[in-house]
Specification:
The chain is of the alpha+beta class. It folds into two domains: 77 residues, Arc Repressor Mutant, subunit A; 156 residues, Chorismate lyase (3-Layer(aba) Sandwich). 28% of the residues lie in helices and 33% in strands. The protein has eight helices and ten strands. The strands form three sheets. The chain has a six-stranded antiparallel beta sheet with strand order 4-5-6-9-8-7. A hairpin with a 2-residue loop joins strand 5 and strand 6. Helix 3 crosses helix 4. The longest helix is centred in the first third of the chain and has 15 residues.
Length: 248
């Protein structure tokens, strides 16, 4: 244990109290706490180290920003585990997580038959007035929220999609129930911060970094899916292998 831990009540001095507390919490994470273990609640830290709530919150905020800790609204603050790494390849979320030894799960947040928005019509090659099934799902890995996704699926191509089990891999459903095997996709990725709509289901705070993927998937020449997925930046990373193209 550090000298700071031997003297629990933190003293004022050249090193601000929130910096001292951050050091103590970081050492506990590195030596005592397992991934996804909860750290002590704010009030307990205030009492043990003789500091204010604002000092505790600043120390924790820094560790959250650094990716050492993460918050779940209404539950507390926890030690970050290793990020799930994904190679860029064409696979469903279910397949991707299973390949990494994690148990995938899906919570259907909503499913609505609607007229396709202009952007969706363009991506899926639909005519004006065409209907799509909008499906919103929360994706979990090992019981922890990983991603929120909003997808659009042509109703004419996938009739009665809403009657299917939307908690399973949709790619598997397309293949077994509709004879459509997803074999290629166009995908764009970027970063943004979580708004209130995304923060709540993902169990994070507003402003936390997200990785966003916009994908249009097809079976042969037929577009089947236009989906946006928001992944927690503290739980997910991607890996790319880049080779020099000597023909350039």
């Amino acid at each position: 244990m550090t000298q700071l831990d031997d003297s629990p009540v933190l003293a004022s001095g050249a090193v601000p109290k929130h910096v001292q507390l951050r050091t103590i919490l970081l050492e506990r994470v590195e030596t005592d706490l397992a991934p996804h273990a909860a750290i002590p609640p704010e009030r307990k830290l205030m009492t043990k180290y003789g500091v204010s709530r604002s000092t505790v919150r600043e120390a924790i905020r820094q560790l959250v920003d650094e990716g050492v800790l993460y918050r779940i609204q209404g539950k507390g603050t926890f030690v970050t585990g290793e990020r799930v790494q994904s190679d860029l390849h064409l696979a469903s979320f279910t397949e991707d997580m299973r390949r990494r030894g994690l148990v995938p799960a899906t919570v259907v947040m909503g499913s609505t038959l609607m007229e396709a928005p202009l952007e969706v019509r363009a991506a899926l090659g639909l005519k004006a007035g065409a209907q799509v099934q909008q499906v919103e799902r929360l994706r979990l890995a090992g019981g922890i929220p990983m991603a929120f996704e909003r997808g659009y699926y042509p109703a004419g191509l996938l009739p009665d999609l809403n009657s299917q089990d939307l908690t399973r891999s949709l790619y598997a459903t397309f293949a077994t129930e509709y004879g459509l095997r997803i074999d290629h996709a166009e995908q764009t990725a970027w970063a943004e911060t979580a708004n209130a709509e995304l923060a709540e289901p993902l169990g994070i705070e507003v402003g936390v970094p997200l990785l966003v993927f916009l994908r249009t998937s097809s079976a042969g020449s037929t577009p089947v899916e236009h989906v946006t997925s928001w992944y927690r930046g503290d739980r997910y990373q991607i890996h790319m292998t880049l080779n020099l193209n000597h023909d350039l």
